[in-house]
Amino acid sequence: MEQLRYERLMIGVGAIATSERAVAITTKYAKERVAFGKPLLDFQNARFKLAQCKTDAQIGRVFIDNCIQRIIAGHLDATTAAMAKYWLTESQCRIVDECVQLHGGYGYMSEYPIAQMWTDSRVQRIYAGTNEIMLEVIGWSL
């Protein structure tokens, strides 16, 4: 039980790393992929979706960095660790799902990294206590 805070924090670290990587490879793809004679990134919807994903990932990065500082200082409480695991894995699934969508059919093919990220992301909401359990832990602090 003593290691749950650390374990949940590490899952959060993995979630944010995956989110940032998904945004990076999708941005690169959107710059290179041509649809209707222009790069996918030239379409407002694609830019807006990637802007939302990048913003969510940046917010997650700030949060996880704060949590890392707290654990180093010995002040990361169970509630905040649960919040990190819950919020970052939920965010990861949303971000990666948007990135798969922007890849179109390629995003669903297992030889593309984004497809593997999408598959792997789902289990993050289960490891170290399901996200429903994280909500219980958070709820106890209310």
Layout: helices, strands, pairs:
Layout lengths: L3 H29 L1 E2 L2 E2 L4 H29 L5 H26 L9 H12 L6 H10 L2
Antiparallel strand pairs: 1-2
Structure description:
It is a single chain. The protein has a single domain (4-140), classed as Up-down Bundle (Butyryl-CoA Dehydrogenase, subunit A, domain 3). Helices cover 75% and strands 3% of the residues. It has helices at 4-32, 44-72, 78-103, 113-124, 131-140; strands at 34-35, 38-39. It is elongated. The two termini are 21 Å apart.
- The neighbouring-strand order within the major sheet is 1-2
Percentage of β-strand residues: under 5%
**SSE order, one letter for each helix or strand:** HEEHHHH
List the domain count as a whole number.
1
Q: Kindly name the structural category.
A: mainly alpha
Overall mean pLDDT: 96
**Range of helix content:** over 70%
Total DSSP E strands:
2
Helix count, DSSP H or I runs of 4 or more residues: 5
Radius of gyration: 17 Å
Stated plainly, the CATH topology is called Butyryl-CoA Dehydrogenase, subunit A, domain 3
CA(first)-CA(last) distance: 21 Å
Biggest sheet record: 2 strands, antiparallel
Name of the CATH first level: Mainly Alpha
CATH architectural designation: Up-down Bundle
CATH superfamily: Butyryl-CoA Dehydrogenase, subunit A, domain 3
Q: What is the molecular shape?
A: elongated
